[in-house]
Amino acid sequence: MPRTRGYKRVENNVIRSIGRFFGKSFRAIGSAFASVARGGRRKLTIMIVPHSQKRVINFQTSFFSLIFFVFAIAGIIGSFFLFSRHSVLASKDLAELRQEAGETRASLDLLKDETGRLIKAAQNFQNAFSGTLSLIGLDSSTSAAKSSIQNGDLSSLFNVTESAQGSLREASELQRLTGYLESSVQPIQEIGKLLNSQGTLFSDIPSLWPIKGGIGHASMEFGQNRNPFTGQWYIHKGLDLSTYRSGDAILATADGQIVQVDYDSGFGNYVIIKHKHGFYTRYAHMQSFRVSKGQYIQQGQVIGYIGNTGLSTGPHLHYEVHIGSDVVDPMKYLNIKASASR
């Protein structure tokens, strides 16, 4: 029991000590706040003394009011600088936007000029294209394209009403141009088919110059000529082409099949090719062959080389064109491609 009472006494002493400590602390804090409050409520007198003889200006304020005024002034000055900074940044952004707007306007002007050039070029294309359609006789097969041309072609681009202004007008012109070009696809495809069929026809008839590289000249033409051996007039049934030398490559003038590779005393080494549409061609006085009987060859393929075999006065190619049993002038067919290109 005495020991228990001793513990209680110590416990009570500790609690009282802690209570006294916290009490003193709170009183000290309260005293500090009270001192600050008294100091803050203390009156200050501010005097403004002018250099002239005017009356001195006095006004009183508290310490708290002065601190509040200082913070208010600092806030106003800080807000002013922040606003100024934002204004400078906004002005910089506005200047950049104006520069970009100027560059965009310049780009639009350039685009407008290029659009005008495009439309003029398209008008030239329209004129040339219409002339080409008339030339090759596709007018009747391209009525849809003609209808599109009449209703929305490039001629109307230069009569656009002024109801649409500025960029809207140019957009309308480009839309019309797009429609015209789309309507031109079918006629161009027809032209391609026609040219393809003509290209096939050119390869089926003997229209290619028979010496590689387009060299050589006609040393004796088709028809009435003097025989170089007898001096008598006779009908020369072919075209003699000379390069003044042996060994130049001889080309097949059209697609076909080799039907004869032979030699005789008159023609020397010669080749006969059978073509479509009843054409035959003969190549005589050859130095050597590059083909064999029964072989299928293509236009422009080398079949042999110029020589001086058989009854010949010098190196040359004797070239004949037959249609069925008739012999015709080869030059009429050798000029076909040149005439077509003109």
From TrEMBL:
Annotated keywords: Membrane, Transmembrane, Transmembrane helix
Q: Where is the M23ase beta-sheet core domain?
A: 235-330
Q: Which residues cross the membrane?
A: 63-83
- List, in alphabetical order, the Gene Ontology terms for molecular function in this entry: metalloendopeptidase activity
Task: Write down the superkingdom of origin.
Answer: Bacteria
Q: What is this protein called?
A: M23 family metallopeptidase
